[in-house]
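Write out this protein's structure.
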Amino acid sequence: MSGPIEWIRHALSAPRRRRERREAAWREVAERRDGTFTPDRTTFWRFRPPELTAPVGDAAVFVDVYAVQVNNTRSLYTRYRARYAIGFGPRMKVYRAGFSGALGTMLGFEDVEIGEPRFDDAFIVRTADVEATRRAWTPRAREAFLGPLDREGRVQTTREEVSYIRSGIDEDPAVVDAGVTLVGDLASYGREWLSAMESVPEARWVGATGPWDDRTIPSAKLEVRGHPVRLYPAVYGAGVVARASCPVGRALEVFDASVDDAGRLGAEVPEGLLGPSSAPLLAQIGPATLSCDSRTVRVTLAIDAGTAALHDAAQLAAHLALGDPRTGTFR
């Protein structure tokens, strides 16, 4: 009798052992990445799977499990998600090459090439944001998808969020870690623009904080003439821009004016706004927009303007908000 009884005991304990193995893998990844782990709290009445959150640069990757019920069959999926660190990114769908990909091509969908033959042969990449998608797929992200993740699952993004979904519950710590790397790297799209802001002389970098789905936007803060100026990426229209903002320190009218690449204004601004110190900066920041809502002055320029232009934009924002130091009109 001991044989059948032992077999039954072993079979009944298998789900518990598997859960323990899975939780050990997720906890290992969380500890290695200085993240957090919440164990499985599923009861007979409620499905509450494990959760993992891990920082990757200025993004935070959230890993959980969700179930799809079809008739009497329930399928489980591991889901990796993160918001774009700069608040905006390319939309794309990426999945393993196969029949569905061939059908998509037949129906007229474009298969975009990333530029690495091994990756391009393995995956279908569908996007209207071609150059941004190529920039987002870093060598580390590509290697994670090709290597430990074994080309399984699909990546899908919106303008705000990256998600990667795999069938089943991931139990191998190497696979979970690779999934975090993949999504974290994609969500770090625009890291070179953040680096340019961080490199502005005398700037203090303030990284993203908060929960994975409501993170603050990272920024560089500096003082110009004792007044705070903030440099940060901002969503503007159908893209992302760089912006320098400074609280107003004098009476200012509301204004909004464009600046061309030669420093010429496209609209009138309040009299006395531009003094001898601020006028030369217009030509140095390239095409830009100057605006004020009576509380804050904002200088908006191309996201890839570079460190020197960002520094000049910060100086200009302070001069507009406080008054030109060479004319004595500041507070």
